[in-house]
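Now for a chain:

_____
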Amino acid sequence: MKDFEALRSIWHDQVALPKVSHEDVLKKVSTTKKGLAGRLLIEMSGMALATVMLIYVWIASPFKMWTTHLAMVIFMVCCLYYIVSLIGNYRRIAYNNLLDKPEEYILYLKKYKHDRFIFNTRKYTVYSIFFTAGFILYFIEIAFLASLWVTILGVVFTSLWIALCYFVLMRIYIRKEESKLEEMIQNLERLEKQFEDKL
């Protein structure tokens, strides 16, 4: 029983987190939200530029094999899917008016974080598989047009690039995004708890 009392005493004597200002938390959350939205805009712009370049290459290059045309269709579908997904995610993070309702916004952010995790893991895996299939189909024509060494070099470079994006860069991206979203959620939860303690 003495151990329980000692533990209870330690628990109550614990230093509470310093109080946070409502305005500071909302300002920080708003800044993080704008940063995430800005990054999604940059990604959309980059993907739109890549799509335009793919269309130009497809129109300007005299591809002879059906596999290359199929590869270009796969690339275009992948790019358009990614752009549409980014537009949806951008609208969800940039155009919500729940910041003045912390309880609802916390739930909204948790759902958004979960959906982004699904997008950045499962859906990105499917995207990567289709993109890789497109490159395989594209390299069939390259194998007929270029020397063996150029084809091998292209396949090796492309494989390393896809592996780097999937296993390294995407993991870093996910970690950073999760950290920012988690920080927003924790700040809002802390503010909510602070208001509950006052009641």
